[in-house]
Design goal:
By secondary structure, the chain is an alpha+beta fold. The chain folds into two domains: 224 residues, P-loop containing nucleotide triphosphate hydrolases (Rossmann fold); 122 residues, Coagulation Factor XIII, Chain A, domain 1, CATH 2.70.50. Helix content is 21%, strand content 33%. The longest helix is centred in the middle third of the chain and has 16 residues.
Length: 424
């Protein structure tokens, strides 16, 4: 990957004295022209030879400036259409910018779109070598690292299978495995890791921790606020192509959640497929799962204590509100519902400006799989204050999956009752 070096001075970002940052984005703008009418055939052009096709100019990025230091794990968040992926493609050199400058100090490896650079008619062996060369390895290096790539991807049995017969999960394993073998200085990672299964996601997270400890520079695009707070040193928030906030991961995550669902009592659907309704007297700001040590986790093992926590901001006075949380499986069944109404005493009076944390602690007996969480804040009489369905998801890992909704601990016994003498 070629390096692009910007010349001083920089107009949109402050560059500290000393060593140059790993990534420097200075007043970058990217525009797309969206045609109102498309003509695909020669006949259409012949029938309307003088007609002009009008276009609408869409600014995917507008004067975006920031710097990422060497060894920094940097998160990029924002709603769909905010410009996150366009920014990453500009950094990777896939898109040419329409304004501003980009400086990249180091070898780059990209993991932006699933299957980019792969030939579906070739087997994994050929694709690994070809993709490794595209990412900067020599042909010899790519061949020498083939075994390590396939071992990490756990695809030893499918190396001679054409990629067009691979599942999406197998594709993402292979692509990620090639990327980490390049040993690049700067990694550009989009949220395609969500395609992998829970076990492989955890494997990737372990790699991220190792790379961070090694001082690699990583730019990570995601909708998962727990991942931002788990990995990132800093993060930035984009909205409609503009930089809204840059700072600590917790502050950026909170601002993202507020931005995603601000607007009082409106009912709507979020960019991640979640839906929300209520009169807006209180708003859930953040929801996460913790293990028994109080550490946020995107995946939890069976049979261990865990806790769901939700932070709620009160915007208008509330008297004795009820807080509920539902754990929903992919079939949209409420597997488990917890409510503060089970407490004998009232929840109390809350004034505008107060913040409440609702917590549900339980032994994890959920069956292995992915679960989404929905929250509900209501008044007595079931008047909805804030209902947020599908606010986030987490994974339950376990060695067995028997097909039930929960996986309770149990003993199995067999007893021989004797032999039947005859039949009636």
């Amino acid at each position: 990957m070629r390096q692009r070096r910007a010349k001083l001075p920089f107009s949109g970002v402050t560059v500290p004295a000393g060593k140059a940052p790993a990534v420097l984005v200075d007043c970058v703008t990217k525009r797309f022209d969206v045609p109102h009418e498309r003509r695909h055939t020669l006949k259409e052009r012949a029938v309307h030879p003088f007609s002009r096709n009008s276009v609408t100019r869409f600014e995917a990025l507008r004067d975006v400036s920031f710097a990422v230091e060497h060894g920094e794990f940097f998160g990029i968040v924002g709603r769909n259409g905010s410009g996150k992926s366009s920014l990453l493609k500009c950094l990777a050199g896939i898109y040419r910018t329409d304004g501003g400058r980009i400086y990249m100090d180091g070898r780059i490896s990209t993991f932006i779109e699933l299957g980019v650079g792969f030939n579906p008619d070739l087997a994994a062996r050929d694709n690994v070598v070809m993709n490794g060369i595209m990412l900067g390895l020599t042909p010899r290096e790519a061949r020498e690292r083939f075994d390590a790539v396939v071992e990490f991807a756990e695809l030893e049995e499918f190396v001679d299978l054409k990629l067009k017969n691979y599942s999406s999960g197998m594709h993402v394993r292979l692509a990620f495995s090639v990327m980490i073998q390049v040993e690049a200085d700067i990694l550009l990672v989009d949220e395609v890791l969500a395609v992998g299964d829970a076990a492989f996601q955890q494997k990737c997270f372990d790699v991220f921790f190792r790379m961070r400890d090694q001082g690699r520079t990583i730019l990570f695009v995601t909708h998962d606020m727990s991942a931002v707070q788990r990995f990132c040193h800093r993060a930035m928030l984009l909205e409609r192509g503009e930089l809204i906030e840059i700072g600590g991961p917790r502050e950026v995550a909170d601002r993202y959640l507020e931005l995603n669902f601000e607007g009082g009592g409106a009912t709507g659907e979020g960019a991640d497929g979640s839906s929300r309704a209520g009169d807006g007297a209180a708003r859930v700001l953040d929801v996460w799962m913790e293990d028994e040590h109080g550490v946020r986790q995107p995946a939890l093992p069976q049979g261990r204590p865990c806790t769901l926590r939700a932070t709620v901001r009160v915007d208008r006075a509330l008297e004795d509100p009820i807080f509920r949380a539902a754990f929903v499986n992919p079939q949209r069944q409420n597997v488990f519902v917890a409510s503060s109404a089970v407490r004998e005493e009232p929840s109390g009076s809350f004034a505008a400006g107060e913040t409440v944390q609702f917590a549900v602690a339980f032994e994890n007996v959920l069956a292995p799989g992915r679960y989404s969480v929905s929250t509900l804040v209501s008044r007595r009489g079931e008047q909805i204050v804030d209902r947020w369905e599908g606010i986030f998801s987490f994974v339950v890992s376990g060695a067995r999956a028997e097909g039930g909704l929960v996986d309770l601990a149990y003993d199995v016994s067999l007893a021989r009752l004797g032999t039947a003498v005859g039949r009636s």
